Amino acid sequence: LAAIGMAVGAPLIYADQAHSMAKVRDSTGFSKDVCAVVLLSNIARLVWWFHERYELVLVVQSCLMVVAQIALLSLVLRFQPGSYASSALRADGSSSGRPFGFWTWTSLESYIVFLVCYTLFLLALQITIGRVSSMYNALLGLYALGLESTLPLPQLIANQKRRSLAGFRLSVLAGWSLGDLFKVVYFLFLKPGSPFQFLAGALFSLSVDIGIVAQAKMFAEKTAED
Questions:
Q1: Are residues 159 and 188 in the same domain?
Q2: Hey, what's the signal peptide range on this chain (predicted)?
Q3: Beta carbons of 142 and 197 less than 8 angstroms apart
Q4: What is the C-alpha R_g of the chain?
Q5: Which residue blocks in the chain are alpha helix, DSSP H?
Q6: Is 90 exceeded by the pLDDT of residue 193?
Q7: How do residues 22-45 score in pLDDT, each as one tens digit?
């Protein structure tokens, strides 16, 4: 049951967010960078499996997360208020001035092309370097799970800049918090032999989740005072 929860629970966290955006036809409030973190980290984690051979349930989880995030990203792009290319500010309130316009593209095809190239690049490195270098594989694991642990960070930053959590579903926050807490328990007590990167990443994510919970309370009180 714990394994099924690990595999299926994480992608389902975003179902309510997707439903909300489709219902109101507006993706304001949800940071598109969350999709970037999830996709880049899970693709790297899948490539890392070729060396580390961690549990199959975590492989299934990553595959489902990639599919779920591409679907969510398509909704974010469809219902974003205006074009990223023609606006000085993105929907999450932050500046769009990034090198090569990274992750500010307007068509889903651009994201797919980038993700395919990114995957092929990591696979090429794994074949040429990962087969002979244990240090490279350790760094790849740190990169994949370290990046994954920053998942709530873009949302934390977007909330702070807008001084509001409007448009961001608290069900996602609850899912993040409970999921990260479950991961900590899972890797500490159920699978203590798992690579240490999993536990370290879960602990960091949980600390950011707590920060967003504090924002929810702080900004709710500010709104009530106004």
A1: yes
A2: none
A3: yes
A4: 18
A5: 2-12, 15-24, 33-52, 56-78, 108-125, 134-149, 153-162, 170-185, 196-225
A6: no
A7: 998 988 888 889 899 999 999 999
Indicate whether 200 belongs to any domain.
yes
Q: Which two tokens stand for residue 148?
A: 């994954």
Is 217 found in the same domain as 109?
no
Domain that holds residue 183: 151-225
Joined together, the tokens standing for residue 79 give 């219902």
Phi, psi (degrees; rounded to nearest 5) at 89? -120, 140
In this structure, the answer to whether residues 33 and 113 fall within a common structural domain is yes
Question: What's the structural domain count of the chain?
Answer: 2
Are 155 and 136 found together in one domain?
A: no
| pLDDT greater than 70 at residue 85 | no
Q: Rounded to 5 degrees, what angle do the CA atoms 43, 92, 96 make?
A: 80
Question: What is the C-alpha separation between 220 and 226, in angstroms, rounded?
Answer: 10
Q: How confident is the model at residue 58 (pLDDT cuts 50, 70, 90)?
A: confident
Contact 148, 201 (CB under 8 A): yes
Whole-model pTM: value is 0.75
Spatial contact of 61 and 114, defined as CB atoms under 8 Å apart: no
Whether residues 52 and 26 share a domain: the answer is yes
